[in-house]
Each structure stands twice: as structure tokens, then as C-alpha cells.
Amino acid sequence: MTLKTTFTMAALSGMLLAGIAIPAHAQEGNLRIRINADIRSSDPGINRDANSDAVVAHVVEGLVGYKDDATVAPLLAKSVDVSADGLTYTFTLRDGVTFSNGEALTSEDVLFAWDRYTNPESGWRCLPDVNGEGVSHVTDVSAPDASTVVFTLEQPTALFLATLARADCGGTGIYHSSSLDAEGKWVAPIGTGPFTFGEWRTGQFVELKANPNYSALEGARDGYVGDKTPLVETVRFVIVPDDSAAKAALYAGDVDVIPDVNNADVPEFKADERIDLQSVPGMGLTALLFQTQDPLLGDVRIREALRLSLDLSEIADVVSEGQAKPSNSVIPQPSSYFTEVQAQVPARDLEKAKALLAEAGYKGEPITWLTTEFYPQLFSAAILVQAMAQEAGINIQIETLDWATLLDRYTNGTYQAMSFTYSARLDPSLSYDMVSGDKAAQPNKVWDSVEGRDLMAKARVSSDPAERQAIFDQLEGMIRADVPLLVLYSGTRVSAAHAGVEGYATWPVGLPRAWGVSVNSGN
Amino acid sequence: MPALARYIGKRLLWTLPTLLLVSVMVFFMVRLIPGDPVQLILGDQATPSEVAQLTRKLGLDQPIPVQFVLWLGQVAQGDLGNSITNGQPVLPLMLGRFQVTAVIVILAVGLATLIAVPAGLLAAWKQNGRLDIAVVAAATLLMSVPSFWLGLVLLLVFGLKLGWLPVVGFVPFTENFWSALTYIVLPVATLTLIEVGVLTRMVRASAIEVLRLEYVTHARAKGLSERQVLLRHVMPNAFAPTWTMIGLVLGGLLGGAAVLETVFTLPGLGRLLVDAIFARDYPVVQGCLLFTALLYVLVNLIVDLCYPLFDPRVTAS
């Protein structure tokens, strides 16, 4: 595939130099967005992946949703009242909201969806986060009247609303009971979102149609909230697995938007004025992980020496094609908790690295570094790390795996070091939870610190931003001292649209949004 | 006819142990590949309890021999199970994708045969002449070009530069004939050109061999025209080995032309298989490979049954 990509790149570049005009294949009223794989289901938060989440979010809406700045705001709810003890959440539904089938949204619909979500048989992605295994334990849900829903929690948590809004939870979207057949089997979502579920042609596309009964929220489009009025009749998510083919399709006008552009393609798109390229910092992380239980890398001096041997800013710049600013915190840059403490980037110091290695008795033993070409930035990062570390006398051997195998090795903790990419976590306590934990129970955790886990537990229940910031700053210092991982940068979200597309905007969560977007075939 | 029926029955019976062997190999080998489908579905946010729950739900917590027996029992009833990735039944999913592959492959191999047979015959007839050198050079070039590269070049020229044909997508013939045609022109052309090279070389080699036989000299001595010699005496005999090659090519390609399907974004069987391998979607991988093996056996059976049409020396007995 690499060879193929190389050929394509060369061929495409050649054709572009020859000045190919973008053919006017664009269709007014129809927006075509590239996705790189088929969706897994249309059931919100159930048997899902990022593509499934993206599609479903156009059809169903939850009580709350994420804004562009990764904070949570009401969506189907008009207001959310939290009791003083933090145990009761009262949602008042917006007036006049109907499902796409014309039925009015009531609290009974919320209960119906919630009952199905919390049925262990449903396989809802976020069940552990509301049944007490994870961030919260919802002990009761009631509907005192047609427009009010009350959730009762066992313990207060700062993450309850954030959990309901999570894209991988399907935004805890509320769907009409007719989304299921008479036997309770899922058919297709009937929601309150700006689009209705049209046709899913496996391996080819998923087509959505504008919802004539959509009731827009006031305010400008903001993340998954605000005005989401559709401006096109249909939106088709076209499945194009190959990046090169997707690029060709964009130039040919066979797709209108590539929502997640490869870093390697950025310079070419950037240089082309016919392409609208947008880049924002994302909430995911690209990082280098160390196995702290490894006989060699268990020595913090060797991990520290590795950090000192690397020019982290240079690596971030090169592997992201200049799209990402270096960031070495597990808290992603767009987070409101990313402050000066998190923004510090350690400098390279080869002499100090060599001294630490000598002190630790390192004699050039090989360190196997796992990576994958599935995510090109991970492979590039490994190559750069190998070269830079060599200058300090560190012997890194790169082993390239396919993504499934790398993920398997990550999950089981069977590695010395690896390049890895974490998906988005929208709250800092979730970011810390992602990397920290008891290795005996969860071998995928890279940082095993009892003190750190205690602090994280405090951050999860506290809703005071200042208190939380202090906790996260303390955690930042602790994790940097232990060096169980080196974050390179927060992911970047780069989208490309051809000139005929108006209103498309990428955002830190990165999932494509088709509302508020129009296509002008004349361009 | 009874002899032919017995022959077909015997050949079909022989497919059963072949398929059983394939199923055993596929089932166990696909599980030897590192990587867990459950982890791929749940991603890096998975908790151990979620992994355990989904593993149980998918039946992957059972010992592998038990999983195999259960799967084989399903297969015996015509049920290839459901995709781990999207829950869809494997058999209809696979058959839907096969239709796409079949249309492209059959058209391409058919066209390639129509081009390769006269080209190979003419080259053999004019062996070592300018025409022969040109045909051999072209065939060698086409054989040497990777299919994805040729596909990309055609795509860039006809899709991007000229804008005559769509770059990605697929429309079934049942939906819109002319639109469907525009989507398959480039993949069919690519595959045709690649296969023309292979088949032309085959036809040429066979024809040269036949042209040296005494009965051809005898035919010429009788005063038959070169056209008659080539068409009536050389072509039928030279075509027999080519026919075997066509069978092998068809058998191989019908199982999926994964690279080409990826380049042209075609929802074919090959892409389904490749995607399933990357997703560790065991039921789909098993189903596709079993189906491919069955196709291969059946195509070659048909080829063998047709052989007597081209070579009278070969009979069912």
C-alpha cells in the first residue's frame, strides 16, 4: 500500500502541476463527505466506531451536547438543574421538538431510550460509565411530567453530563420507539436531528435526507449544539478507504469534503487555492509510551534520558507537517485546563541524557520500539526517535506492526516502547484515566501511581474549576517526573473541502458536521 | 451422458474434502494472527469488563475447537454466521459483494480473451517478425505493469484530467445501466489490459507449438489458405491450454481483485476480505475464503468440462 500511495502521490502531483481543473461534478443540494470505512451500525453508541458516531449524530440528538470548546451545553434539554449535593439532575425538555416522523418529543421517549441503553443486552458503549463501574452510577431516572426528566446519582461526579454528551456514547441520543421493530430489533434511527436516515448501502455509502420536522436550537452552530439547520437536501457519506483515492475524488468533484486529511497531504492541499483547508487542534494525543515494568525501561533514569535525547518540538513539527504545536501534556491543547503548566515543553539535552544513561549502567542494550504504518505519524515518530536517541547512544530497534497487532500489544502491555495515538477524551480526568491505573488489572495503563489515582478520583467528583485545575497541575508534575510516556502533540483535525462548499468547519472533536453547509455546483 | 454425470458428481464430491480442509486451515490460521476483534471494536477506551462482555457476546470466549465445531455446524446448514464488525449475515453480504466483482472480472477476462486470441495467433503466425516483436513487447509490458499503477494512471487521465468518468463509487446495472457503465469502464479496462498480456503470451506460445506440428504442414500442402490453416487447424488446438489459463485467471480473480477494488473504491469481494482481515472479522474472513475456494473448484470444473469442445482427444472418460 505504501508503494501504491507513493505512486499516487507522484502521479497526482504531476497532474496538478499540469494544472488540472476541478471538474464540476459537485451537485447542488447534495453534500458528499468522505468516510474511510463503512459504519458498523446506525444504533447510537452500540457497535460503533468514529464513522458510525459521525453519521448517527446527524440523526439523533441527546439531552446535552458538546460545544466547539469541548464544554457541554443543553441540546434537547432547555435547561439542566443540578441539585446542591450534585446527586440530582433535572432536565427540562425544549418545547416544540418533534421527531422526524412528526411525533412530539416527551420525557417518555427519554425513558424509553434510557431503558434500552442501560439494558446490558444492548451493548451500549457507555453502560459502565452510568452503572457504577466507571464515572457515575445512575440509581434512578423518572419523568414527573411530559417535559421533565430527573436523573439521580449515587455519588456526585463532574463527568455525568460530559458522559451523556460523548460522541462514542452516541451522545446518549433520544430516538423514537419506532426505530425498533415489533420484536424490539433495531431498524434505523428516527430522531430529532437535522437529517433523517435514508439509505445505507454496505461498503458504498450512507445517505441522509434533510429532516423537514427539524426544530433548530437558538444560537449559532457550536459543536453539536446551536442552530443545526440543514442547507442541503441530502448528505451522502461516501466510503473511500484509500487516502489517495479520496484525494483524487476531491479533485474530481466526486466528494465535496474530506473531514480528516492525512498530514502528508496537507502541503499539497495548502498550496492549492481551489481547496479550502482547515486545521484546528484536536482532542486526541500522539504519544510515545514506555513499559515501566520492563527490566530496562523500568529505570526512570533511562526513560528520562530518552526524553532528554529527543527534540520533542522538532518531532511534533515534522510528523504533523507543521500542523500541530508541540504539547507534552496528557491534557489536550483545546481544553480549558491546558494552561502554562501543561504548555511547558522540555528541552533536548544530550549531555545530560548521556550522563543519566551512564549512571543507570546502560550499555547499548537494544530497545524494541513498536509502531505501525496504519497511522503514518506513528511510523514517522518512531524513525525520528530512533535517529535522535542514537545520538545519545540509545539503541532503538523498530518493529512495524499492523494496527490490530499494535493495539493488541498496547492492550496487553507487551511492549518495551511504542508510538501510539489516543482517541479524544474531552475532560482532563478522562485523559488521566486513559493513561493511569493499576497495571495488574489493566495492563494497557502506562502510569501506575497510587497517589495519582487518588488525585484523579478527587478531580472526578469536584465541579470547582479552580480546584480541578490545581489537581491537574499537580498530576502534570507527577507524570512528567515519572516519564511513563511522552506526549508529542494533541491531534490536529484537518479538513479539506473544494471551493464549491460553503460553511463547512472542522472542530476539535473532528467528526464531520453537514448542517449549515451548502454546495454550489457552479464553482 | 451418464459418464459425464458420474464425472461431474465425482468432481463435486471431491470438493467436499477440499472445502473441509480449507475451512480447517482458514479457521485456525486466521486466529493465529495477532490482534483481537473485540479490542478493535472497542478501541483504546475499552475497559476489561467491556472486553470480557463483548468477547462473551460474540462467542469468542469459547475454546477455539468448540468455536470451530459450532461454526462448521452453522456452515453445514448454509449459515456462515454474522459479521463481527457490523452484525450483518455473512452470506448475503458476501454474495452482494461478489456480484460487483463478478461483473467486472467476467467482462474483463472476456474482453481480454477476445483481444488476446487473435493477437497471439497473429504473433505466432509472424513469429520473429515485426508484428510478433510488437505484440510480445506490448504483452510483456502489460504483464509487468502493476494493476494498481495502471488503474491509477487511467483514473488520473480519464477521471481527473478529462473528467469523463467518475473517480470513486459504484452503481449497480439494475439501478441505472448507463451510469453503472461509467463506473466500471476504468476497472474493466485496467483488468482487461493486465490479463491481455498474460493470455496473449499463452496463445502465442501454444500457437507456435501447434504451427510446428506435421498436420499443419499437411494442411498447407493440401493448399488451404493461411487463414483457413490458422482458424480451422491452429486456433482450436492452441486455445485448449489458453482455456485452462482462463480458468485459473477467472478462479483467482473472482475471489476478489482487492487492490483494484481499493483503487476504484468498488465494493467487491476482495475489498470485503481485506477489510475483514484488518478488522479481524473472523466470520467474514472464513466465509470469503471458503467461498473463494468453492469458486475456484467450480470454475475449474467448468473449464475441465468444456475442454473436450476445444480438444477432441480429451473426453469425460
UniProtKB/TrEMBL annotation, chain A:
Residues 1-26 form the signal peptide. Residues 72-435 form the Solute-binding protein family domain. One of its GO terms (cellular component) is ATP-binding cassette (ABC) transporter complex. Keywords: Signal. GO terms for biological process: peptide transport. It holds the Pfam family SBP_bac_5. Belongs to the bacterial solute-binding protein 5 family. It is found in: Periplasm. GO terms for molecular function: peptide transmembrane transporter activity. InterPro entries: Peptide/Ni-bd, SBP_5, SBP_5_dom. It comes from Devosia riboflavina. This is Peptide ABC transporter substrate-binding protein. Gene3D superfamilies: Dipeptide-binding Protein, Domain 1 (3.90.76.10), Dipeptide-binding Protein, Domain 3 (3.10.105.10), Periplasmic binding protein-like II (3.40.190.10).
TrEMBL record, chain B:
The chain crosses the membrane at residues 12-33, 98-121, 133-160, 180-199, 242-264, 284-303. It comes from Devosia riboflavina. Residues 98-307 form the ABC transmembrane type-1 domain. InterPro entries: BPD_transp_1_N (IPR045621), MetI-like (IPR000515), MetI-like_sf (IPR035906). The keyword Repressor does not apply. Belongs to the binding-protein-dependent transport system permease family. It is found in: Cell membrane. The keyword Hydrolase does not apply. GO terms for cellular component: plasma membrane. Keywords: Cell membrane, Membrane, Transmembrane, Transmembrane helix, Transport. It is a multi-pass membrane protein. This is Peptide ABC transporter. GO terms for biological process: transmembrane transport. Pfam families: BPD_transp_1, BPD_transp_1_N.
